[in-house]
Every structure is written in structure tokens, then in C-alpha cells.
Amino acid sequence: MAPLPSGMVLAIPLALLLGGCVTFTPDGGMAPVASRVSGDIGGQVVKITSEEEAATARARVSALLSRPLDARAALQVALLNNRGLQAQYNALGISEAAYVAASLPPNPSFGVERLNGGGELDVERRLVANVLALLTLPARSEIAGVQFEAARHRAIEATFRTAAEARRAYYRAVAARQAEAFLEKARLTADAAADLTVKLGETGAATKLDQARASAFYAEVSNELARARLKSATDREALTRQLGLWGNDVGYRLPSQLPRLPGRIRTEPQVEVEAVLKRTDLIAARLELDAMAKSLGLTQATRFVSLLEGGYRGNYQRADGETLRPQGFELEVQVPIFDLGETNVRRAQETYMQAANLLMEKAVNVRSEARAAYVTYRASYDIARQYQARILPLRKTINEQALLEYNGMLIDVFELLTTERESIDSNVSAIGAQRDFFLAEVDFQTAIIGGGAGGGETVLASAAAGASD
């Protein structure tokens, strides 16, 4: 076989030099993810890629489940055990593989053709390389690097979302359990009142109307208890799903009531600025738009050359006892007769502007979401504090005075039952207000750092994918 031309021999080292040397990170790009998550929400994340890592995570989860869960423990269990989150980390690894692949030159094609007939032997050897891919290697590698960085922020966003959903599910489950326990006690009180009214009716001290009201009160509280039990069971299952638990682990323990309200709450005078700077989904969208802009420039640069391949060709021919070794090269270019590349450029431009408009819309929405979350956070705290500091103490006083007046025959059973009904409603509402504050606290944090329920990033990501096609 004849030696390859020097230009073809140097093509691959030159492409490697142009594209730079990109290698896989030891942890699949997880270091920035772990650092951001630890700093913002205090959780530890791990990408499980081996049996040893799985065993370590499992041991940590078991230790956390060995005692009643608090909100922080629930968050950590979700970060270690939620398989959907692990799938997001796999997506980050896929993006890194695409980045490394984009930094490598295209593999050359080698072909051999042998023809034998009529006393002649013709052997043709071909080595073909995609010249266009070699020339655009640095640009493609840079674009893939930006996309990989955007994927990192998507992984951070997914982690924040998993943590937020776990905390929300936790507060709902604990609040439902607390409401169920309260209604259990309320039903005992209603049962005792109904029994007492029946006994008083037997002596003539209570009318049939009083007995019917007491029985109806007991039935209504029993129905509320049944609904509370159903909600408690379903909210616990929602938490179980977020924690990724099954088997014996579903018997984890929860506290009997929600945490106390904090004495003071956060004040954020510039929530909009902080959200625009910190929101991971907004950062990822900016990076994706940057990658798209680079892709648009690449499309314009290569609009008239959609296929360019160069290669070495060496033939070995033998005919009538004479051996010939002709050599040369070939260059194949797709001639833009019908499509001058305008369709690719126009599609890239429109896709870029679509993504830019979506990004601007998202930035406006992020500012509004931050303001709304802060207002909700402050208001929900004031409402919950009002229940704890004013309404429930007053209800307790009203109940005590109503019982004294009933014993002194100053009010009838109807007024006593009405007072008790109002007290039950106030206590259940107070539990709901306390739960709503903790949910608002989670929503406020996600409005600043990311992890909320916004869905604009999916459209923007698909637009970016369309531009790179």
C-alpha cells in the first residue's frame, strides 16, 4: 500500500489541536452541582454509579429513617433516594458525553475495492475525511461546552425542585396528621356531649331537639375525621413517593405536629434582583441562548457548503503483467443549486428569536414570581401568627365561659354546641394556616434560587435543540 499524503497524515493531529483536549470529569460534572446545592439548601447530593455508592447512600437513608423525620431529614432522604433525580444526573452525564464527542474530530472512512476480471486486477484504496467537520470543530466544541454548562444548571434546578417538592409533601403530611389527631379528640368530645344529652333527655332535662343537635354534631365531626384520615393517608403516600421509599421503609415516623412558627421572618428588600441573579432555570436559559447564538453563526458560515469531504485515493492495477500504482485525491462538494442554505439560516434566525423572546418572558415572570412569593410569605406568616397569638386563645376563653354558663343554665345545648363547632373550625384553620406558612416559605425560596413549578424552560430547551439540528 502506498503511503498516505502528508496533508492527510497531518489532518487528524491538526483537528485535535483546533478542537482542544476535552476529557470526562471524574464525577460526571457533579462537583458544581453539589457545591451549589450544599450552599443554597444545605443538602448533600450524590450520583450513584456503583454498588459501593448505592450502599453508602442506603446506609445514610436508613440512619435518617431510624428517628422521626423533620423537614431537613426528609429533604436529605429525597436527595439521596429519589430515582427521578438520579435520572436527571444521568442526563447531565449524557450532556458531558456529547461535549466530549463534539471536541473530537470525525472518524475518517477507509474503503477498499477489488475488481478482478479479464486478466486484470484493480485494487482501489480510499481514505475519506469530512473536511467541513474538521474546520468547524472548534466552534462545535465551544457550543457543546456551553450546552454542558447549561445542563449543569438544569441538574441544579432539578435538585432544587426535588428538595422543594419533598419539603412541601412533608409539611402537608405532618399537617394532615395533626388535623386528624385534633379531630380524634374533637369526636370524643362530641360523643360525650351526645351521650350526655341523651341521658338528660331521659330525665326530661333535654328536649328531642337538643338530642338531635348533639347527635348531628357528633355525626358531622365523625365525617370530618373520616376526611382527615383520608387526607392524612394520601398526603403521607405523596411524601413517600417524593422520598423514593418502598418496602419496610414506608413505616417511617412523622412528628405529631408542625414545627413552631419562627419568631422572625426573612426580609428581602430586593427580591427581584436576587431572583434574576440566582434562578438556576434563568441561568440555564441564558446559556442555552448563548449556545444557540453560536450555532446561528456557524449556520451562516457554512450555508453554501453543506457537504464537503476530502480524501486520499490510491489504486493498485495489474494488467498484462504490468503493475500500475496511480495516486491522487478526491474532493466532493454538494452543489447548492436548489437550496442555497437560506432555509437553514432563516430557520436558525427564527428559532433564535423565539428562544430570546421566551427568555425575556421568563425574566419578567421570574421578577413577578419573586414579588408574589415574598408577599405570600409575609402574609401567610401574619395569618398563622394571628391564629396562634389571638384567635386560638380567645376561642379557648370562649369555650371555658360557655361551659360555665351552660352549667349555670344560662345558655342551652344549642349555644354550647355552636361554640364547640366554631372552636373546632378555628383549630383546624389554624393548623392549615401554619401549614400554608411553611409551604409559602418553600415557595419563596424556590422563587429566588429555582426549583419551582415554572414550565418555560421546556419550551426554551426544545427551541435550542431545534437550532442545533
Number of domains: 1
Low-confidence stretches: 1-10, 15-19, 301-310, 454-469
CATH topology: Outer membrane efflux proteins (OEP)
- Under the CATH scheme, which class? Mainly Alpha
Q: Give the mean pLDDT.
A: 81
Describe the structure.
The chain is of the alpha+beta class. The chain has one domain (6-468): Up-down Bundle (Outer membrane efflux proteins (OEP)), CATH 1.20.1600. It contains 13 helices and five strands. Strands 1, 2, 3, 4 and 5 form a five-stranded antiparallel β-sheet that branches. Helix 3 packs antiparallel against helix 4 and helix 11 packs antiparallel against helix 12. It is elongated, with a radius of gyration of 35 Å. The two termini are 39 Å apart. Mean pLDDT is 81; it is low at 1-10, 15-19, 301-310 and 454-469.
Please write out the topology.
Layout: H1 6-19, H2 31-41, H3 51-65, H4 71-81, H5 83-102, E1 109-117, E2 120-130, H6 131-135, H7 137-203, H8 208-243, H9 271-278, H10 280-301, E3 308-319, E4 322-324, E5 327-333, H11 342-407, H12 413-449, H13 456-468
Antiparallel strand pairs: 1-2, 2-3, 3-4, 3-5
Helix pairs in contact: 2-7, 3-4, 4-7, 5-7, 7-8, 7-10, 7-12, 8-12, 9-11, 10-11, 10-13, 11-12, 11-13
Protein name: Outer membrane protein TolC
Organism: Aquabacter spiritensis
GO molecular function: efflux transmembrane transporter activity
